[in-house]
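Please, does this match?
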Amino acid sequence: MKRQTKDSIVLGAALFAMFFGAGNLIFPPAIGLTSGDKWLFSLLGFFITGICLPVLGVLAVSKAGGTISELASKVGPKFSLIFGSIVVLAIGPLLAIPRTGATVYEIGVAPLSSINPIWVSIIYFSVTLFFVIKPSGVIDKIGKILTPILLIVIGTIITAGSLHPIAPAVASKLKNAFSYGFLQGYQTMDTLVAIVVGGIILASLIEKGYTDSKIQFKMTTIAGVMSGAILLMIYGGLMFLGATMGTSVTPEISRTALILKITQAALGPNSLLVISVAVSAACLTTSIGLTAIAGDFFAHVSGGKIPYKATVIFVCLFSTVMSAIGVDKIVEIAVPLLVIVYPVAIVLIVFNLIDPLLPYKAMYKGAVLGAGSIGIIDAFKALNLDFINTVFEPVYKIVEYLPLSKYGFAWLLPALTLSLAFGLLGEYFAPFRSGFTKADQVGIALTTTDPE
């Protein structure tokens, strides 16, 4: 086997481990349950936001220079700082880290014990803090052991459940299963994780001696396809199992209770301990990794003014409180933030990948403004507060008339339109604006002259 091929396979395994956390278990079955006989259409939408975008995110960050700051810097340095901070907070103490703690309680502890969830959170995040403050190779070794074990457990559940389905998938009342799966894919937050830690993949390749950018891109692409294929099989299997549970559970069942029901149906009542231990340990490795990322990020962007230890202590304390509210409540809270951040992240990923084809870097600003504006409107709608709905009802109706809005792409036309407008206006007014030279149009001096 060629060295490049072997290293690409190793990289693909690492990429899969980076994307696949225990939290990813809870969404596909729930999507399948809601989608019923339309689960394949939901899988297609979920495939785009839950698999394709994270892989493209890694490629875009690698091409941009290796950090989320460089990915967003073409919009402006202040935007880069704000966007990077929001993303790190989202995959950190606001959403993803507390969700790991809540998942540990609901899947790993509650089925086996009646202990109060707050005590589980305190113990869980104390262990997280111990490993984060005193980094040790032990947790990395545990992660390398646990990922294969978790995969074997999930693979066994999917195989057993597929060979002996509980019931045929029931007819679904979903109007648009594709859009539902597409938007649910936001909840994995893997795209946000990808654009934060994508630089690790690039650094790994450089460390192995691959300095040619074309070879780096090729190897990362191979690794991405490999990890994406594994994720697709797992997500598809779990979604199918969820679709076959429609006659056995109520639609109101929680996401964590559903995966436990599926496990029991596939492997028997004594299987809960196996899935509980595997999921809990996998959650811990994810929590430790994301907490360390948050600490490193804010220490770096503040020039050391926000100490690493202070950040990780705050993250663990805040997450302890947040995790006690439960997985479903955290997922509900996440929606308004994710519908703002994801369209902007998608624009930045796509534009960085096609950067050589963009004649004017001002196009980045227009695209982000267009996508972000619709995202904010969608966030207000997701809050579902009466006084906000009353004020914004006319705006909601306008957004519904935008092309592809029913598929979750209402932001696409505004992003493209403003991107073209900013590019053309930048070209037209360039000779008359001080500080906006031809160099700005090709992106050489934009970040130093722009007030952003």
Remarks:
- The chain has 20 helices and no strands.
